[in-house]
Structure of fructokinase:
Amino acid sequence: MRFGAIEAGGTKFVCSVGNSDGILEDRVQFPTERPEVTLAKVTEYFADKEIQAIGIGSFGPLELDASSPEYGHLTTTPKPGWSGYPLLPHLKRAFHVPFGLDTDVNAAAYGEAKWGAAQRLDSCIYITIGTGVGIGIYAEGRLVHGLVHPEGGHLFVRRHPEDGFPGTCPFHGDCLEGMASGPALEKRWGLPGGALPEDHPAWRMQAYYIGQAVADAILLLSPKKVILGGGVMKQAQLLPMVRQEVQRRLNGYVNAKAILEDIDEYVTAPGLGDDAGLLGALALGIDAWKDR
Amino acid sequence: MRFGAIEAGGTKFVCSVGNSDGILEDRVQFPTERPEVTLAKVTEYFADKEIQAIGIGSFGPLELDASSPEYGHLTTTPKPGWSGYPLLPHLKRAFHVPFGLDTDVNAAAYGEAKWGAAQRLDSCIYITIGTGVGIGIYAEGRLVHGLVHPEGGHLFVRRHPEDGFPGTCPFHGDCLEGMASGPALEKRWGLPGGALPEDHPAWRMQAYYIGQAVADAILLLSPKKVILGGGVMKQAQLLPMVRQEVQRRLNGYVNAKAILEDIDEYVTAPGLGDDAGLLGALALGIDAWKDR
Ligand SMILES: Nc1ncnc2c1ncn2[C@@H]1O[C@H](COP(=O)(O)OP(=O)(O)O)[C@@H](O)[C@H]1O
Ligand SMILES: Nc1ncnc2c1ncn2[C@@H]1O[C@H](COP(=O)(O)OP(=O)(O)O)[C@@H](O)[C@H]1O
Ligand SMILES: [Zn+2]
Ligand SMILES: [Zn+2]
């Protein structure tokens, strides 16, 4: 049996086909253009794939309330053409199979829980530090939606004492995303993250913000695993600094061996590398087929 | 059928008996002394009550992993005699009925979801601003535990620009609890909250911290209802100020009618008043009986 997986990002779309063991057989990738153009490519890709169901992990914000007439629509995104776009209804017209849908970061958290760093655990959070910052939440064996869906990328972090950067978030200025996303990093230091040397002070500052957000999320949610992905986390020196900052912030308050002693396994890179979101989408498709 | 409910607080214990509709028939209350003294009173109270199960909402930190040999023990509390105390095992020896156990704030969130302000919703958070600050989480129809249990009372809030108070938290200084608990309020202004006039600047500052924590929790978790209880929230002027602060912080980012228009119903006082925790404990007892 084969299932379709769509990672619908604001920058690029990835489509793939995989089986129920989480093995991806094939994939394509293309930049995100206007919805009609992009979805035509998605539809073309899956047309001859004989898939039983499709799972989608999408950029947002998204309407995820299954009882809403706008279920599966994008809501108010600045991405041209996508605001209010009926992503799921459009795909449902093209393919008469069960669909699973969640946010990109929830999908990534789910992928990690199924086949990655959080296997056999009933909770984890997945934080991406990329063009945007997002936090996916898997708690008590379920992906968290609630009123809309989690938007933890905008947590109100404390400013680093030596940081005069105003932040890039159009809503909050110096929220987590405003201070620690890839574009914020680039604007603050005048070079993209990938071009900064390993020992640049930028990384301490990144760790200050990311570690604070991780500590806040641990306090509020007590996840069994914290997974950090996204382009900015490609800097291998960053993860150990984040772990240090998490321990410094919590200061022994959360009395758990995972945090006090085993933080290298507790705050970790994705077990699935860059495929966490895509494999999570696959898992959502498999679930949709099981629940059909 | 009758069920026992225990609200085990660091200051006082409340024991009660109720039915499956959430009606409490009777109750007793006594100060929290050393465990042996306190639990002797609990045992005496329930001895002749013919209850089918007992639910407990307890102060913590608590071991809530049912597979741990320390399940139901207090862990590292500064409360004399209680550190490591086997609360649940002790009560299980006295009463051979099913037991339900959760944190005090999770119990309160559950009570509100069953019979209070979050009825018919599958998520809510309950924040108590009292001697301590705690955040209980009910998400996707389940109480959240995870690695230990949520400890959102210690979120790393931003300092108010006019606040020079160092904070009272022995671990973090100026975390949420360190800045906004009842004792922090009293230490900062030299008078307990109940003795400060309604128009005192203390309340704006309280709202600044509490509103920030609520905004962070909304971003991270997207609950369908936010319920604010505890002694400090007895100040009726505080809740509207908190709502204002939540909206100011989020600044329209979370595009949900509940937040943008209906915040008076969204961020609200407990529907069960001071009985949220006790009724939540009752609900945990009822669940334990159903799952027996
Ligand atoms: N090796 C790297 N080191 C630091 N930053 C990087 C690196 N690679 C990509 N980035 C930054 O990460 C961001 C892109 O994040 P990514 O997760 O790849 O994509 P997206 O968030 O758009 O899905 C960009 O701002 C880019 O500058
Ligand atoms: N009316 C009030 N106004 C402001 N603060 C109050 C009021 N009543 C109690 N408090 C404060 O609330 C705290 C006690 O909180 P409470 O929720 O009643 O108990 P606990 O947290 O110990 O269970 C104390 O610090 C007290 O000063
Ligand atoms: Zn923001
Ligand atoms: Zn603290």
Chain B touches chain A through 50 residues (CB under 8 Å). Residues A 9, 11, 128, 130-132, 182-183, 186, 192-194, 230-232, 234-235 surround adenosine-5'-diphosphate (ligand 1) (CB under 6 Å). Chain B has ten helices and ten strands.
